[in-house]
Amino acid sequence: MSFSALLEFTPWPTLSILILFIVAVFVLFLARDTAHQAIRTATSAIARGLRLASHSTTHLESRLATRNRDVLLAAGREAKERIIEREFERISDSVRKDLSNYPTLHRALSESIRRIEEEHQAAVDVPPEAPGWVRAVDAVSKMEGKNGAGAILEDIHKSLVKAHKEAMDSYREASAERHGLLRKMMPEWRVIKETLDRVMASVESLLSRASAIDRHMQDYQDIVHGHDRAVSTLSSSSVVQFFVSGLVLLIAIGGAAINFSLIARPMSEMVGGTSYIGSFRTADIAALVIIMVEISMGLFLMESLRITRLFPVIAALPDKMRVRMIWITFSLLALLASVEAGLAYMREVLLQDELATGALLRGEDGGGLKNEFLWITTAAQMGMGFILPFALTFVAIPFETFVHSSRTVLGLCGIGLLRAVALVFRVLSNSFHHIGKLLERLYDLPLFVPLWLEARAKAAAANEARAQETGSVQEVQS
Amino acid sequence: MKAFILALTALLIGGCTPTAPRNTGVYLLLDTSGTYNEELKKAQSIILYTLSKLQPTDSFAVARIDTGSFSEKDIIAKATFDDRPSTANGQKRAFADAIKTFVEHSQSAPYTDITGGILQGIEFLNEKNSGRKAILIFSDLQEDLAKGYVRDVPFDLKGFEVVALNVTKLRSDNFDPREYLARVEAWRARVEKAGGRWRMINDLERLDGLL
To answer: What count of other Cβ atoms lies within 10 Å of the Cβ of residue A270?
Structure first.
């Protein structure tokens, strides 16, 4: 039955509409309670479901946050362990180096001190002997002059003067000798001072390293105890590392792109210029594969050198095997770099060939201008072709940092996303709660007449009941 | 894990599936009849331009239109360029030399068998199995068959592009341009009826869209 047919049950469509409206309002009024209940149940169910989803998402977020925290702490602990290990290695090297020299140092110091003591003993000041003639002179002076005391005294005086002069001369000689010995002590003192300075520098270096280890150990303890400060520091550090390593990787990708353009064209001479794998040129794929192999070799080289730790298997290899691996990867890298240099040269040759052919086809004689500085471009291309593979080797370092930091950063992003989803669920839940109320009001909107009548009837019934109650009370009282 | 293996297998199979040919085949017909023979210098520049645009594994043949053009003997030069760019460049240079020699020593033909040339071109390009096939006709499109030559043959030009180049006006066209228009229209209709695409380029300074 169409809508127009529905309006034709009376001759006047307006009347039909009015009757239909009244019937509809009546039916809706009768079904009001049920409809309200249905609306309330449906919206409440959706709201509860959304609230549950919000709780689940929050729970998931907290689990992810815990996991992220664990990952962060584990990574921080590992990094700190590496740093502390390295510091201890440095201290060990320093102590080994200094202590291995200690017996020599001790012997040198002992010898210097012994020599100084000997020279000091030799340089002891011996006072001149006191003259032994004093009493004799005294006795002679008491004698009478006729007994020749004057002459005796004169002789004694002469002898005394002579003895004194000799004593003074020998004393001067001894003093000069002593001064000479003291002068010889100076270099020994200098040697001792330099040795002690060296010892002091070593001790200071050890002390500074010890204080650095103390600092690292404090950080390590914070990490082990899972302090919030440590987590916060590690988190911000991880984000910084993520962006810095990402930037370096972007630069490396630029380098790889240049490398690719250097070898893609000559590759077409080797694998054909027009064969395709899927929708990609085989020459392009071959060039890309060479670059990828170079990067892989670089990764293995860095891993073998223990600069990076992406592959535990390589790190766990015996030293002899590891050294072999270093040489093998380095040789392969050198070979690939040489191949690239050759391809870069070939690229220039092909380019010149194409230019010459193009010039011929354009009707230009002589194949264009001869460039006498062409060798510079060729050499530069060859140099780049040789150097870039080695330069790309160092991609391993930012790559490792990027991989490690991306775990944390992705975790942080996941936490943020889950938090946003939980918020959206909560908002939607509340919205559905209010939407239910709104739908009830909208349902009641066309029923305002019967609702008003109902309200009036209820009020009248209430008044009547009150009046009856009042009447019965008065009857009881009377 | 199973899904990953399946995806990888699908990728490998997809990657190894032989793809449709991507090369181009070009067959150029040179009208050497009557006074049009004098236009061959222009044709040479078109050939050189075409050579510069073609890539390794593309095929190119240049044939003359004379009294009976449905013959391999009318092919002046042909080449399928090598996969290696350096070899392809060498082939292009040899091709250009052959064309130069032909232009210098070409003699005019008494009749013009365009249909025979097109049939020969269709055969050549179908043999080469090129991804894109183009027949270039350097002619005034005035067919003039010798007695005894039957050329009322239906073409199959599906997947072909036919480009008329340097369609000059004859003296009679100047008196009645309708003849020229009717001639061009007749060829267009014939090509399109055979399933081909028709184009006409008269401005040889603007050959950018030729290939």
So the answer is: 15
